[in-house]
Structure formats: structure tokens, C-alpha cells
## 1
Amino acid sequence: MIGPQASKVLLGNWTGHSTVPSHSLYPHQWSWDSAFIAIGLRHLSARRAQVELESLLGSQWADGRIPHISFSPSVARDAYFPGPDFWQATTRGGVETSGIVQPPVHALAVWLTHQADEQESVRRNFLARVYPKLVAWHAYLRNHRDLGGHGLVAIVHPWESGMDNSPAWDDALARVEPAPLDSFTRRDTDHASDDDRPTDLDYGRYVQLAATYRDHRYDDATTPFAFALEDPCFNALLIASEHALASIASALSLDPSPHLSAAEALSKSLSTLFTDGIFRARDLKTSELVAADTISGLVPLLVPGLAEAAELLETARGPRFRLGEVRMVPSYDLTGPAFEPGRYWRGPSWFNTAWLIHRGLSALNQDALAGGLRSDVLELAAGTDFAEYVDPFTGEARGARDFSWTAALALDLERT
């Protein structure tokens, strides 16, 4: 039973209104982390899971975006970089945040949290209070971030993908002149091995992209984006969350059809990213699909009614990812030229993407593969002290320990 250990991690990382991913490496509230965390918290306390999501939505901007970090005023301002002084973004409610976003898994997390204790959800009027915020969030993405005109949402920073250091971003990042190394001080390498983290060169590029967006007041219409890509995972999660919004609307006796229509349109557009048995990101600066095959291209397995599901499943089981043969699901093509088994998103297997793939496999009635992946997640979570990610061949722990979404999603797989 993993429950007691997972519960200890989640309780230890709870701040009173939200859960930090890691007290050392990530001491604030992160957007998609909180969504994944709520999915696990719902088994311990549906009310606490609701509060987790409500806390995150409390940092929503007037334009509807949910920023990728909500900064805690109780944490030293220089404990994390880039911190609030760098981003210079404050909501009308006085919450200091970052200016970029992360993948939209929130509506799915809200729906699963509601289902965990419908009576408590209704008593607290949970769905009715968060539904308009989620609608505004999705509207921001569809109305402001269809930068390519393809009906897909574009990310404008690697951090927005949640898969910061993925090889899928290498060519686009190479066009970015990095911020000088003496202009900022990294904090992540204070708590994690340099070998596990992005290089200084890449980090300088991340900083420059964020600074340019900030200096243009986070205006999507006027910022000269040097980095803009349509990411399969981001859009697949938007589709899944539109389906969740349809369920939420129905529960509130509202019309679900706008959400189902949005999901259908996004699914058709997503198909334009499919090639060679996998979904690949489109670089909007070149209009070409990137060559790198990553876990992002497998996440669409969870999209309901996906036309490419059978071929995508074959790729997942093939030599590029070896699903069922290696530990969980590697974040990058095992045969790819940029593969590194221990470096951030360049090969290691992650628990959140394993959870997403498991959800897709279950929906496709791939019971043997889903069961094997579930067992692997539970074994690795317990055996690595809830590591942030692991080596896909050895299962060796990498990154932070006592990582919140690892504990949360392992708990969810054990309980469901």
C-alpha cells in the first residue's frame, strides 16, 4: 500500500491553501502541478482538492489566463528564479504571478475532484463557482494563442509546455540570443544536480524569451515571439478538458454543446500534427513539424475518439518508446540523437505523463498495458521516495524527492 507514504508527502507539502511541488526546488504554486495534485488529493480530502484548485484559480488574470506560477508571499523573493521581481506581474487581487501559462489540465482535474465527493461539491457550490473561470481560461487560449491560424493553441516559451528542456524545442531555441549569464542567478542547481538540469545556455534563452514577453506587457498581439510552436500535449489536454467542461456544464444544467464543438474542432486540427506514427510539434516560424519524437506526441492517446489511436499505440510499443519494456514511458525517443537518460525531459520517465498515458490506455481498453504501467508507477514511486522523474532503463531516481505530483498520481492509480 502506497497510500500512507503518499499521504505523508502531500501533507508535508501542503501550505494551508495549496501544495508546493517541492519545498526546495519549487517552493511556490505551479499551475499544472496543482491540477495533478488535486487529482490525488481528492482521495484524501475532496474539500482540500477543491481548495487546491480554487487557490490556483484565484491567481487568474483578467484576460482569462492562468499563470504558470502563483508566488507565495511567505517565501523569500529570491528563493526561486525567475521570481516575482523578474516577472513584474500582479493580478487585480494583488497576487504576484509569472506571465506565461502551462498545459490546461485544470478542467479535467475539477471534474474528477467533483466526482470524488459530489455531495461536498454541491454543498460548496464548487462547480458553479469555478466553471466561469475555466471557460474564461479556455477562451483565452483559443482566442489569443491561435498564432498560426490552424485552430491550435501555440506555446510561446518552453516552460509553457511543462516539458521545459525537451529536444523538440532545440531548433527553435537555437534562434534565440540568450540573456548574458551574468545577468541572472539560477536557483534550481542549488537543489538538483547540474547533470539533471537544463544547461546554462538553454537557461539563458529561457530568460530572454520571458523578458521579451514581459517587456511587451504579456501582450500576445504585439510581442515579437522568437519561439512559437503548436504542442501536441498542450492541445490534447485542452481537448480532454473541453470534454470535462462539457460534463461540468451538464451537471450544472447548462448547454454542453459549445465545449463538445470546441473539442471536435481541436481534434481535427490536432490531426495535422500527425506524421510517421506520432504527433509532432509545429514550429510556427518555419511552418514545419519538428523532427524530434517526444512523450508530447503520445499524450493524444487520451483524446476521445482519436482517429490515429491504433497507429500511435504501435509507435508507443515500438523501438522509440518501448512501452511495457522500459520503466514507465521515456520522455524522448530512445533511439534519438539527443537522448539522455538523466537530463530533464531529454529521456527520463515522468510520473505525470505516465498517468496521462495510462488514462489513454484504459480508455482504449488496453488493459494489459495499462495494468503494467500502473504497477510500474506504484513500484517506482514507492521505491524512489517519490522522485520527480527516473532513468527509463534503471529506474534510478532523478530530480527532487517527495515530489507532490508523483505522490498524488501514484495515490490516484492505487485508489482507482
Note: Residues 232-251 form the longest helix (20 residues).
## 2
Amino acid sequence: MKPSSSSSHFLLLALSLTLTTFSLPVSSSTHDYADALSKAILFFEGQRSGSLPPDQRMSWRSNSALTDGSTLNADLTGGYYDAGDNVKYGFPMAFTTTLLAWSVVEFGDSMPPSELRNALVAIRWSTDYLLKSISQPGRIFVQVGDPNIDHSCWERPEDMDTARTASVVDTPNPASDVAGETAAALAASSMAFRSLDPGYSETLLRNAIKAFQYADSHRGAYSDNENIRNEVCPFYCDFDGYQDELLWGAAWLRKATGSNAYLDYIQNNGQTLGAEENINEFGWDNKHAGLNVLVSKEFLEGNVESLQSFKASADSFMCTLIPQSPSSHIEFTPGGLIYKPGGSNLQHVTSISFLLLVYANYLERTSKSATCGGFTITPSSLRQQAKRQADYILGDNPKGMSYMVGYGSKYPQRIHHRGSSIPSIKDHPEKVGCKEGSVYFDSEEPNPNVLVGALVGGPGEDDSFEDVRADYRKSEPTTYINAPFVGVLAYFSANPNN
């Protein structure tokens, strides 16, 4: 099973202060953010599907799912397995890609050249697949693999013998969420590649426009389609509506093209598509907080006065994240980690930390601050909160454990991940069948293959973490936990003291 998004708001903490400015304490420990950055990017090689290249660094992996799409006369090889299973879900994969690309767009200058290259390689592994998913006119492939069958097995991707069902949405059926996020991913990626590979950048942008046209012309949630609902739900249903993905896709196309057509779209459709609802969430299913931060940049730069409401909403979101703010309503573990009930908590921590840093940059570059009534939040205070979260993940926590596999001296050893937990096909070439892998799932031994850089779901609300393979809510890594953390680590690798 996969952790799901929810539209519930953060729990209210009764906090009130009379101060108008504040600063958070800075962590006393020092982390090797550059090393963590390298590992966070390397993780994506462990999630690759398809034919692996000669320079594959996660050497315990091998080729897998080489016939994906063939039953529908399509090439759907490549892309990423989203987590510890062997299914390719288009919705979270596109979001992962958007956040990887945004990390490069915003913080690529902070990355060492070698890691910038690795980040672009990680993006392209996904964008090449996303291009395939919209290559046939009037249709979008949204998933490959039957999750119900896949989740009943525990086998390496290299040994997969489960159905590789390709889920597809054809016109006039709606897929605004997946198509809108795909448009955002391709548009953001076109910006990441613009200077180094302009030809590929143009291909991405052209297809982003095409994906957005599908999203806007056929409005609705892809998971409402009865033909595929049982294949995509309850794993990656659209729980929070498709409207945010339309605005999100338009916002990225505005940023990538500079076209007023997309600005007009945001302005003309913002109210009807819920832009003013000010929902304080950001993740694979809900883009509202990220949308507000992204769009507010134009207002902060003085370009578009009519976008002021997005800045106000972004401010409001930031005010919820700072404990000293009178409008704070976020929950923390006793050790200081942002906590949101549900499972796979680090997906919230890394995406929120990323937005804290992005917004801090936008405010600083325009000599602005965030306000909550008479309370002022500076860019420095936003960065300090992000640093506290990053340092907690890397080991500054009550258990003294890094929640990034392979970073530090103490990290999760028994992660919920099939390929990591079963001996590599290179060490154990005999096939491990669907149920034959159960012995490895049930084992209390550490995983034989280290999925370097993987961020797991993370500790519970009391900072507890048992390192148990069966507890997928805490021990399963996902691509969308790692993607925003790449940007966070890029910033701190260049600015370790904020």
C-alpha cells in the first residue's frame, strides 16, 4: 500500500506570542550536505525501470520490465518505480519530476557540476518516459503494472512475472490531474535543460503544451474513470480534486514560456478552480501551497499586481509553519520534526522544507518579508526552520538516526523495498518467484542491497522508529520524498550556515 494524501489541515497548536519578529535556533551539529545531496540523487538509479545504461552506479540493479506497453502497441519502458514495489504510477512520477526539475531551476547553481549533471540525468530518466506516456494522440498512459497483484508478491523487479497492465485514458475521458502534472513536469524540466540541451528543452516544452491542452479540454479526475478506477485506487486516486493541477500546469507553462496566455488562464480561472481556498498542503496530490509560492514570485518582482492574493496565501502558509507565529497550526514531534498524521510523514517534511527555502529566496531577492497580521517572518527564519528539518532527517533527532539510507553511521537497515531486501540477481541469479521472496520479507536480517540515498517514511509522532520492514508507513522510501530534498540539500551544501 501507498501513503495517501489528505485534505485535512494540520492540527492546531495553541501558541500565541506578542513578538513581531523572531529567529529559530540553529542546529549545533554540522552535516556533510554535499555528500547527502550526492546520495539523494543516486537513490533514483535504484528506482529505475527498463534497460539500464552502462554507467549505472547502483550496480546491484539490472534490467527490468522490458516489454511494458507492448500489449497496447506502445513503448512504455523506462521511468521509475515509485516506492518499494514494482509499479509505475504516472501521477506521483510526474510530481517527482516537477520537484526534481524545480530543484535544478531554483538551486542548480548551488550544485557541484557533477551533481547537477546527475540531477539532470535523473530528470531525463523520467521525462523520457513521460514523453512516451503522451505520445499517442488523444490518450495518456497513466500507470503500468497491476498493483493488487504486485502487492501480493515480494519479488525483485528483475524477476517480475506479474501482469504489466497498462492503464490508459482516452478522449473524451478526463485526466486533468495526471495530464496537468505531466504538463508541469515537462515545462519545469524544459527550464532545467534549457541552457545545456536546448533541443531537448524545446521537445519537452512542446509536449508540455500538448499535455496541458488535454488536461484543460477534458476536465475531471482520472481516478473517476470506471475503466481504470480499480487499477489506480486506493493507491494514487485523486483525493483532493483535479483543479489544482490545472492551475499548477498553467503556472509552470507561464514560467517556462513567459506567455500571457497562461497568465490570463490563471487570472481567469483562479477563483473557479479554487486558487483562493488557501489550502495549506503540498504533495503529489495537492499542489495548492506550491502553486501559491510559485505564482507569488511574479507579484514579488512587481510584474503582475493582480497576483497579490497568491502572495497573501503563500504568506499564510509560511505563518502556519513557524511555531512562534500567532497563526501557527502545525504539529511537531517532541524532537522538532514537522508531523502530519497519515503515514510516510517525510513526504510532507521534505516538500515543506523545499517551499520554505524557495520562498525565502523569493522574499530575499525582492527585499520583502512574510507577514501574519502584525507578525513578520524573515527569509532567514524560514531557512532556519528548513535547516532544522533537514538536520533532523540527517541525524539530529532523539534516536540519533539518519533517515537517509547510507548517510551517517546509523540508518534504517530493513527498509520496505523488494529489490533492496532480496539478494541481487548478480549474486543470486536463480529466479525468486512471487511468493518465494516472502522469506526475505519476513527476515530480521538487514537488507543485502543498500539503496543509498533513500529517504524512508520516517518516525512517528513520538519520534519512534523501529526499523521493521513490514511497517511500510515508516520504512518505505518513495521518489516524491527524495525529489524536493534534492533542492534542500543543494541549498545547504552551498550555504551550510544558512
Note: Residues 102 and 179 are 18 Å apart (CA to CA).
## 3
Amino acid sequence: MQARAQLRKKLRDARRTLSYEQHEDAAKRVASQLNALPLLDNSTTIAGYLVNDGEVNLKYYIDQVWHTSGKKKFALPVLHPVCKGHLLFLSYTQNSKLTFNKYKIEEPILSCQNVIPVTQCDVILMPLVGFDSMGNRLGMGGGYYDRTLSFTQNKTGFHSPSEKRAPKLVGIAHDIQEVDALPIAPWDVPLDAIVTPSRTLQFTKS
């Protein structure tokens, strides 16, 4: 969709213009917003991302998760080596060794013993390129999250909800990435919440 591609470029350019001080302030404020988000209170496994291309940096929040006396653990997405276009999630600690994937994004070195099934993630913090107040999201365009999380839309025919437990999905973005209305694609996976440096939006999925 051309409209989405043009909007994506505009919003990516906008967040790249933010100064170092603005990025640092955003990272600290988003960490505070996440600490106040109720759906994270009882979450033990939280997946997120490492900053790339001007997203909000989660470094302060990740550091807080690491220092919760072992009560919470963090995970990062890794490009799936077999199911092309999908993601795996791997445990991420202070000792994790990282490598760069084909998009020049850091990710943990693949190790089967560190894989965390997506259904064991209580919450996934997702980087957004754009969003609107209705909870619609615009990603980087690769479709990795939409494919990996398509089961959360209850369209896959599983007989029991316990077979595929859906994580809560929280989009993370700068305030300047908000638009009045996003063009929606049928494969877009809806969010449970969106967190920016200035506010938190929560949604009820139908």
C-alpha cells in the first residue's frame, strides 16, 4: 500500500531528527509509563527490542527488569532461521552475546536452550513507526510481528485457548509518531496498549 509506505518514510524521518537529549528523555519517560502500566504488574516474561532506527530506547526499562530479584525476565526477538518472515524470542540477560542480523539489528546469538515460546511471553513490547488513538499500528513493513502473532486474532482454528496463549501486545513510540488515522491492512494485529513518553492508551480487543 503506497499510502502506508509514504507515511512510514515520513514518520521514520521525523523520529531520526530527535536530538540525543530528546531520545534520552523519551527512554526515561517510557520506562516510567511502563512501570505504571497495570498489565505488566504480574507479568514474569516480557519481550521487547533493542533500539534501531530511532525508536524509543528500552534500556532503562530493561535494566529495571534485570534488577527485580529474578521475578521477571526479558526476551528479545530473533529472525527465525527456518520459518522465514517469522520471529523467535530468546532470553536476554546482561551476559547474553549479541550479533547483528541481516537488517543490522542486534539480537541474541541463537541457542535452542534460550528460546522462549511466544505463548510463554506475558507481554511483548513492540516498536512502532506510527499509531493512532484507536490503537492501529504501523510497523517497519516486514510483517514479522504480524505473522508471528497472527494466532492472537483467533483465526487459526485452535480448539482450546490454552493451546495458544496470547501475550499482551504493547506498542512503544515517540509522541511525534501519532497520526489522526492510519490506513489499516487486514493482517494488522491489534494492540492492547500504546505507550509514549507522555501517555498510555489502553484498548479492549473485540
Note: The helical segments are 2-16, 20-35, 59-66, 144-148.
